[in-house]
Amino acid sequence: MPTIAVIGAGPRGTGVVERLVANLPELGAGPLDVHLIDPYPPGAGRIWRHAQSPLLAMNSMASDVTMYTDDSVVCEGPIRPGPSFWDWAREHADPDTFEPELAAELRAVTASTFPSRRLQSRYLEWVLADLLAHLPDGMRVHLHRDRAIGLAQDGPAQVVQLGEGRRLRVDAVVLASGHLDASPTPDELALVAHAQRHGLVYLAPEQTTDSDLSVLAPGETVLVRGMGLAFIDLLVLLYEGRGGRFEPDGDGLRYVPSGAEPYLVAGSPRGMPYHAKTHYGLRAGLPPLPRFFGDAEISALVDAGAPIDLHRQVWPLMAKEIAWGWYHELFRGHPERVRVPWDEFVDGFAAAGWDSPEMIDLLDRAVPEQVDRIDLPGLHDPLGGVTAPSLDALQPVVRALIAEDLRQHVDEAHTPHLGAFVAMLSVYSSAGRVVASGLLTPRSAAQDVGWWQGFFNGVASGPPGFRVRELLALSEAGYVRFLGAGMAIDAEPDGFRAVSTTLAGAPPVHARALVDARLQEPSAARSADPLLASLLREGQVVEAVITDADGSVLRNTGQIRTRPADGAVLDAAGRAHPRRFAAGPHTTVKLPGAFTRPGTNSLSFRHNDALARAVLQAVAGAARAAA
Length: 627
Ligand SMILES: Cc1cc2nc3c(=O)[nH]c(=O)nc-3n(C[C@H](O)[C@H](O)[C@H](O)COP(=O)(O)OP(=O)(O)OC[C@H]3O[C@@H](n4cnc5c(N)ncnc54)[C@H](O)[C@@H]3O)c2cc1C
Fold this sequence. Notes:
A hairpin with a 4-residue loop joins strand 5 and strand 6. Helix 1 packs across helix 17, helix 12 packs antiparallel against helix 15 and helix 13 packs antiparallel against helix 14. It contains 17 helices and 21 strands. By secondary structure, it is α/β, with parallel strands linked by helices. The protein binds flavin-adenine dinucleotide. The site of flavin-adenine dinucleotide has 30 residues, from helix 1. Flavin-adenine dinucleotide binds next to helix 1.
């Protein structure tokens, strides 16, 4: 019987199994055994396991999360609709089967709440159970709570070695390994050694949920490098997690300390937290997308076969598309705030290049208020150009910027932010296709792709509003202080010194503890996963290293190379393995997440579909050969 091993049972592995289920009747036409392998709970996997702090929340709203395809998804396989998180919470989840805390949360959840990770864990487990309850005839799924530690070949057969000793002989393998731990980089190792030598504390990048935060003592000053989502998790665990409370205080919150918390001084390259999530719906409905950066524009770039500079040639299309989402919502949702009829605006907007004098003139005529015009540089770098003479002087400045950002993401007068966000999802997918063409110049691949990912994260992947209110309360209470942009650290025997470009000229901040609050960059070479490490050692997988024309390394992405069309694993010579596939953050195919907003033609689901179909075709071929 054809057999497939899916290694990793988080949202990606589960999504791949869903597509195997969907496509088997058409492509398999026979029995199929699937082994789904993960030491963490199947369906949820490590990131979404139940066993983590109940305080940690998703940064997606209940109605924005689905594991099921819908009519918007353009893929070859059949659409198998199913409940979004929000549908599940209303129609399928039974609070009486949950522990009291989770049952209370389920009863209170609304379309626009940001559920706890524990509740999402239940949804993901339910999705897998639903799949298993509706397998096509002849298909069986075997769950293994184990780690895959080796993968070998025996003729065409793939042999998966499990940690507890069993070997699985299969026809094809999918590596859905997700966010993998890695040993520290040389710079981080130097900080680890320095901290050990001088009795200091240094926490290298890792999953915050798995960090030993007890080393950060009450009352101690701690430098924090990084202000993204790992920073938000750190705040949750160090303050509410140590017994502090937030009480309503006017429009905001007031922090009531427990006495067990440290004092943080936080900075990063941009010096600001990610923009808050929007808390409203679109007034004008979904903008028609793609409009200025879709098939035609991608083909025009890619079919020529010439080297592409993302920043110079693609960003103007990306920016115009994002702005299109913004202005569609502004004109159709807030017509009282514009001066030009929609049809006239569309004609002018379509004809003008992004940032051209014609575009600037059109916007000057059509949109009188600055706040109603999209400000892409301002969104990317909200602290740009701000300086302050001292740490104390900077605090109210940063707080005011964060508070205004929060206001615009909560106040329905500013729904164009959501229009832009929706357009960014479309742009992410289109830009991914250009990147996958392999035509980017080495410089552009090494620099611009990371820049765009940073822009996307900062604007589209931010925390929910209640977390931003908590951050503001912690800042008001003096427990969190902002260091500004361009943070740099010096390690000295008596501690770490931090400076920033925002505070150029001000005295450095000194502390005996430093936390790098971010996930590790993907790295197959430094991976703590024995399976991936052994595959790399044997040359079975290869990291995508971007080199210049003269062979000098511009950037090692640390991700393993896979074929964009179907996730087939590539070797150093660029040959696709016929029976090994991979998808997720450890691979070169950029996907915005493993679950997604309903109705958005999710790139993730399309990729899962293409991958599952290729896997089924591979095992059908194997079955024919064996017959
Ligand atoms: C802390 C955090 C919070 C996030 N929050 C959100 C959010 O709110 N909204 C959103 O849209 N996205 C969020 N994301 C993005 C995230 O990428 C996806 O939500 C999702 O978890 C990715 O799914 P995955 O299955 O690819 O990876 P993972 O969730 O990492 O799952 C991979 C699984 O593979 C298993 N595995 C790895 N190697 C092996 C092996 N050798 N043998 C067996 N099993 C193995 C792991 O144990 C793990 O369970 C978040 C990410 C992180 C890290």
